[in-house]
């Protein structure tokens, strides 16, 4: 089947079906991280690939910011399963036209974030390439039971950390060369796009205290990633549009894009999780103690109801686009 018809997630499912699980693999293909046993215990392992003109555009991204973001997106996967990051393997495909100072700037951004979260680079590879390619494998210490995508149940609450849509709006300002990108609000949105904050602290506590029944990080858009939880858990979901957490900067500049970017813009790298209703008080307390906003935005419903967004009047909101899929859209240039 043509990959544009099959789609990124159809391809992943196809690969999962033909790939044999081996001894010691506790969680394999299909979650944010793999969970593997080894003689010393177990580890979480995740990998990501970022390609120039597909995931980033060096016309508007500095090498230092790119180094930060390359690690942040992997750390976000670890956060989504409640892990504690430890080691990184970093491999780069580098065009011949590049200067060594550019690569050192990349490492400067990467290493600053790595030190902040106790990550040590233990190896990798370099090679020449036609465009800049970043490949990262991150190894982490798991909680007693990593949070999977498959634990949600009908009646569970749905939560999200932080705000939605800031990164996608920042990218829209860059792509459309809008004057607002030079404003103070625009600058803060661009910072959210170029230097996302992985929610490792919140993820760690949600896992250790067994507050989250299912969790994922929002990389491809709220509705796309919520769909992954619903499929894995066998549920549907209702999202209350008026409850979506939106920043003042977003509201001041989004205009007609306000609803759509928050629902499917992508690259928020916030945590989307489900929890039993009897955990509400503990989650409210976590929001205060962890220093990150946590907002209840909906609830899990029977799978037959699908995923629905309701407006303030309780009417379904048309959602023509669910989120990002690498094989079903043109190059992002993010």
Please report which band the strand proportion falls in: under 5%, 5-15%, 15-25%, 25-35%, 35-45% or over 45%.
Answer: 15-25%
Give the CA-based shape: globular
What's the number of extended β-strand segments?
Answer: 12
Total helical segments: 11
Largest sheet: 6 strands, mixed
CATH superfamily of the largest domain: PurM-like C-terminal domain
CATH fold topology of the largest domain: Phosphoribosyl-aminoimidazole Synthetase, Chain A, domain 2
CATH class of the largest domain: Alpha Beta
- What is the helix fraction of residues, given as a range? 25-40%
The figure for the number of domains is 2
Spell out the key features of this protein.
about 325 residues; single chain; alpha+beta; globular; 12 strands; 2 domains; 6-stranded mixed sheet; 60s Ribosomal Protein L30, Chain: A; 11 helices; Phosphoribosyl-aminoimidazole Synthetase, Chain A, domain 2
Describe the structure.
There is one protein chain. This protein is α+β, with helices and mostly antiparallel strands and 334 residues long. The chain has two domains: 31-141, 2-Layer Sandwich (60s Ribosomal Protein L30, Chain: A); 157-310, Phosphoribosyl-aminoimidazole Synthetase, Chain A, domain 2. The protein contains eleven helices and twelve strands. The strands form two sheets. It has a six-stranded mixed sheet, covered by helices on one side. A six-stranded mixed sheet has the order 8-10-7-11-9-12, sandwiched between helices. Helix 4 (100-116) links the parallel strand 4 and strand 5 (120-128). Helix 3 runs parallel beside helix 4 (100-116), helix 3 packs parallel to helix 7 and helix 5 (166-175) crosses helix 6 (184-194). The longest helix is centred in the first third of the chain and has 17 residues, at 63-79. The protein is globular and about 55 Å long. The model has no long low-confidence stretch (mean pLDDT 89).
């Amino acid at each position: 089947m043509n990959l544009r018809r099959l789609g990124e997630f159809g391809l992943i499912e196809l690969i999962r079906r033909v790939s044999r699980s081996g001894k010691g693999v506790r969680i394999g293909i299909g979650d944010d991280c793999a969970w593997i046993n080894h003689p010393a215990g177990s580890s979480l392992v995740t990998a990501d690939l970022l390609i120039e003109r597909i995931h980033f555009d060096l016309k508007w991204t500095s090498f230092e910011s790119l180094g930060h973001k390359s690690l942040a997106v992997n750390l976000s996967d670890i956060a989504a399963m409640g892990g504690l990051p430890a080691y990184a393997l970093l491999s780069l495909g580098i065009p011949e036209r590049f200067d060594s100072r550019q690569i050192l700037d990349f490492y400067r951004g990467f290493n600053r974030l790595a030190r902040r979260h106790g990550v040590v680079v233990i190896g990798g590879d370099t090679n020449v390439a036609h465009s800049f390619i970043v490949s990262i494998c991150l190894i982490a210490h798991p909680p007693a039971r990593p949070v999977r995508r498959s634990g949600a149940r009908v009646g569970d609450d749905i939560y999200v950390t932080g705000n939605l849509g800031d990164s996608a709006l920042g990218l829209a300002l860059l792509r459309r060369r809008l004057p607002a990108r030079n404003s103070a609000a625009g600058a803060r949105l661009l910072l959210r796009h170029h230097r996302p904050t992985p929610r490792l602290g919140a993820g760690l506590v949600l896992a250790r205290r067994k507050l989250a029944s299912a969790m994922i990080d929002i990389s491809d858009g709220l509705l796309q990633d919520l769909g992954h939880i619903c499929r894995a858990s066998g549920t549907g979901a209702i999202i209350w549009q008026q409850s979506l957490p939106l920043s003042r900067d977003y509201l001041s500049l989004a205009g007609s894009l306000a609803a759509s970017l928050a629902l499917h813009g992508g690259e928020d790298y916030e945590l989307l999780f489900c929890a039993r209703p009897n955990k509400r008080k503990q989650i409210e307390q976590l929001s205060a103690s962890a220093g990150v906003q946590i907002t209840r935005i909906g609830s899990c419903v029977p799978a037959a109801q699908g995923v629905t967004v309701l407006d303030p009047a309780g009417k379904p909101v048309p959602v023509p686009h669910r989120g990002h899929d690498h094989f079903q859209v043109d190059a992002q240039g993010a």
